[in-house]
Amino acid sequence: MKFAVLGAGRIGKIHAETLALRLPDTEVTAIADVYEPAAAETAASLRIPVSSSDTLAVIRRDDVEAVAICTSTDTHVQYIIEAARAGKHIFCEKPIDMELAQIDQALEAVEKAGVQFQIGFNRRFDPNFARVRRAIEEGEIGTPHLLHIISRDPGPPPISYVRVSGGMMIDMTIHDFDMARFLIGSEVEEIYAVAKVRVDPAIAEAGDVDTALAVLKFANGVIGTIDNSRKAVYGYDQRVEVFGSGGKIESDNNYPNSAFVSTSRSVYRDLPLNFFLERYKDSYVIELRAFVDAVQNGTPVPVSGSDGRVPVVMAKAARRSIDLDRPVKLSEITA
Amino acid sequence: MKFAVLGAGRIGKIHAETLALRLPDTEVTAIADVYEPAAAETAASLRIPVSSSDTLAVIRRDDVEAVAICTSTDTHVQYIIEAARAGKHIFCEKPIDMELAQIDQALEAVEKAGVQFQIGFNRRFDPNFARVRRAIEEGEIGTPHLLHIISRDPGPPPISYVRVSGGMMIDMTIHDFDMARFLIGSEVEEIYAVAKVRVDPAIAEAGDVDTALAVLKFANGVIGTIDNSRKAVYGYDQRVEVFGSGGKIESDNNYPNSAFVSTSRSVYRDLPLNFFLERYKDSYVIELRAFVDAVQNGTPVPVSGSDGRVPVVMAKAARRSIDLDRPVKLSEITA
Amino acid sequence: MKFAVLGAGRIGKIHAETLALRLPDTEVTAIADVYEPAAAETAASLRIPVSSSDTLAVIRRDDVEAVAICTSTDTHVQYIIEAARAGKHIFCEKPIDMELAQIDQALEAVEKAGVQFQIGFNRRFDPNFARVRRAIEEGEIGTPHLLHIISRDPGPPPISYVRVSGGMMIDMTIHDFDMARFLIGSEVEEIYAVAKVRVDPAIAEAGDVDTALAVLKFANGVIGTIDNSRKAVYGYDQRVEVFGSGGKIESDNNYPNSAFVSTSRSVYRDLPLNFFLERYKDSYVIELRAFVDAVQNGTPVPVSGSDGRVPVVMAKAARRSIDLDRPVKLSEITA
Amino acid sequence: MKFAVLGAGRIGKIHAETLALRLPDTEVTAIADVYEPAAAETAASLRIPVSSSDTLAVIRRDDVEAVAICTSTDTHVQYIIEAARAGKHIFCEKPIDMELAQIDQALEAVEKAGVQFQIGFNRRFDPNFARVRRAIEEGEIGTPHLLHIISRDPGPPPISYVRVSGGMMIDMTIHDFDMARFLIGSEVEEIYAVAKVRVDPAIAEAGDVDTALAVLKFANGVIGTIDNSRKAVYGYDQRVEVFGSGGKIESDNNYPNSAFVSTSRSVYRDLPLNFFLERYKDSYVIELRAFVDAVQNGTPVPVSGSDGRVPVVMAKAARRSIDLDRPVKLSEITA
After folding, report:
1. Residue C263 touches chain A, beta carbons under 8 Å
2. Are B199 and B207 within 8 A, CB to CB?
3. Residue C206 phi, psi (nearest 5)
4. pTM to 2 decimals?
5. The complex's ipTM?
6. C270: which chain A residues are within 8 Å (Cβ-Cβ)?
7. B25, C236, C303, D136: which one has the fewest Cβ atoms less than 10 Å from its Cβ?
8. Three-class SS of residue D152?
9. Domains detected in chain D
10. If you write DSSP's letter for every residue of B231-260 in order, what string do you get?
11. Across chain A, which distance is largest between two alpha carbons, in Å?
12. What per-residue confidence (pLDDT) applies to D6?
């Protein structure tokens, strides 16, 4: 299966490497980036034949069957629509867009074209979270009652990024909103969120928050929480717990090694993995494998366009709850 | 130090045994219970000289310096007032009472009499939670930002008890409200709570809930959650996590042994301790040790009358939040 | 059941307290110690009616049904013989004696008198080791193939004690020899041991070793190891692992609390319990409970006189292996 | 750096993939296998230009700078000598050979040619074991006193393989002999080993054993053990513990995920990784990275020819100890 990768930034390079080297039945025929040298450099190191700064031309190439959209968020919708029109299957990084009207345009184009469309919520494919989902699906812990998601970054992004990020809920918590839906397999109807600036006053000056707690009420009766911080000094902290009528399941962080040391002061181990690309390394390969399989078999993708839209609604509801200090129903979010 | 134990039920027996056998500098000179045979039986097994069904007479005995009130909640205030008037130091099980006006009467009597008065929030003295508190007090994890309390019973109480319990918030969550204040060392200003019946419809018929989630906003900026269930099939689940600017601390459950077994199916261990008396065994001894020390040294007790009052206010705020589906400030609770 | 406790040292006090306060159906009618003030002090604090420096007179008292022998090792045999002659049941601390001829005299006296006789190998009653034994007994890990015992003290005894201790094998490893037989339920036929002085040269000067490794060949084909050190800086290290055809079981140390802290440097917990009396606290109560039950029901004691003799043979075989640098059969040990 | 891979079996394919795809500065110009279709298939899937059944011709190709020898053990020495003569750097799977005279011929040829020569003891590069080595190197646990290696396979090899394997010590334990030297950084002087057939009588009929325990005495005073079984029903069990004057360090197995489930029966997790290629996945990449670095920088390889020879001597000593039931010095092994 022949891919074009759009965007040669951090995540673009990872997907290009997976498609060029890791998966046996895929290749990358072209890579595009508005900054041409970036595209050229990645092309060279991965032996990709074509690099270009003309993204639209790359999308339309005859030797491209599918595109992986890894460009900045504000360009997603345009490229989705172009790729759909050109009949290319689409893998797109999250979020689709920050505005629902835009998202709906993209979804419409995809549906009209009848191409496959998968959103890059890679964490669903992480072995830890996939195991938790499986437990719930198979009834290993009975009917779920309570969910807790811990999702803390090792450090805040640059303030320049914070200013244009759309805010913590849509930039960071969006992953957790997807995780909540994925794990529980039911829709959230209402969100109550509380947020603070505890890490860095500059984040407040940029109009954002860095510490947050959201409560989710699901249609199936589950109550969930999401715990977010922009700065966990001990590393990337990504855990979940689901409690149900038949038990509970908890996932832990990943560590660089399994060694425990006991000295005269304490029993200790090395810190958990710090960098998200390392923490989620396997999930990037597995999600593309799943996308390729869906395209080749004509089966539904595991993360649909609707799965890309709902977390944006959730992020908007959470944001409104923070602003109004009251629970907000998802049905209140109309744009 | 000479004690009278009031009430020879489950917790009364435990305190009687601690005061009669475990602590080297205390003895129990009398035990009272409205059902005289219960008092007599405990007296016999612990070699307590006097047993009686006349609680007031026992309180007033000359050879009694302090009382441990372990009777039903509705009798607490009366015995507190009587004991205070008689100049006896008072250890009283929680809650003081379900009504603030009653509690205030009791606190007033205690203050007037100048006797020591400690509330039986024993979990503060559990080695796991005490360790978490110490970490926060000593700055081991920096400034706290987020708190999570998991508090799940192994099974619901009898429906007959549920009906008169005052509801889950004041009957069960009250311990967690105390734990939250104890760990963070700051007052809660606002509570948002969600509750469901997921365990047993009979609990709904009795007018109560069995699954709940509360969000606490503290004066010092910490955001906390309490997760409650009346039925964790794997045992008594009592854990906390505190996250701060310098790290996090998590406590786990206690287990009957440390063995892990690996077979062809899984790697497993035995279930955590199921029974609260076993789980919190040590804490009952340590809390009475602390009370006796405070009396003997004339120093403040570690759990004051005010510490007994505030969680009742919190329970009422949580209950109101459940009823109104909005966050409720503690300042809204006036009775 | 009325006990006399012989010896008011560290372990004598523990057994006296258990028999006087912890077990509901036992009492201590007398306590003896060659140093009378020690006996008197313990008697006073536990309200034991009689204290004395005349051990033989105490043994023979009419109001004594059983004795707990907690005196120095060189007096054990004499007191066993006296107690047996007087028809008293006997609980005796390990080792019975350092010489087999002496041990055999004691066992003969016990058999002749028909009294119950239990050896104080308390670790068998520790919940961790008891759980491992249960796994093996019930076939939870299939047929055992390999056994590992880690047994490291937090610090060496005083050199003055080392000189008269009989050597590390009989003083310290003897517990592990018993543990090996207890866990596997088969006799050891041959031992190969290696020993070094790594902790303190003064131990070498005193003619002993402080670091050792023993290999045990069992009659049922199991191969076992014992790892000993006199000094583990992180605390008392007492673990076992048994591997079999159906899996493995491992036990860990006990910790003062369950809290884990994560900071910017590491993920850590507090050190394991350091003091053997704290680590094995429960086992002292359970072993006496088992002794009392055996006496009252006329059933076999869980740790017999033979169980007291065999580990002494094993210690002698291990010592000889160290001296000769070759495996030594237990059948080679005749005195 | 241009490689030829010799042997297209399981490990040959892994190294070919690493050199062709994983390392950015290496390529595979040819692959050889006596069974040509195997070579051709791997060549096709990895886009290797040349495949051949003529191993010697491949070794001598001008576009080959280094060879990775992944053929059957009995061919190693011949290919080492040929490659050395042709001036190619050599990465060779373990063991070099089963006979010391043969090994010495190979080492001589390598030395004469002045090429780099690294042995494939990949476990040294596993993050868990590398962490343990680092602890010892940096004094994190003080001076080492005791070492334990647990090394159990998930299942025995086919009996046809057992017959030609050279026996468990040289086929399986050889990895652990290397690990022991690597971790402790000192030579073993004497070995005592005990072995049994507990897994499958057919292994006895094939003249081998399946369960073993070896004791190692190191020149620096450390005492070590190796625990081997051909069948751990719960998966691949590869752990070490080192105890020293300043503490201990323990490494655990790797698991497919971090999830723990608690139900009404137990608290459990999924079994550890079962397959050695999965368990040691990272180590295969890291060892070749290290080899390439050593060649490119002209620095010593991390696993030398001598490191390949000594474990063979240790295996022979262990085998002799099993046969003679006594400790055997390495100096006794002359051929």
Report:
1. yes
2. no
3. -80, 5
4. 0.96
5. 0.95
6. 266-267
7. B25
8. strand
9. 2-115 (3.40.50.720), 124-275+310-332 (3.30.360.10)
10. --TT--EEEEEEEETTEEEEE----S---E
11. 67
12. 98
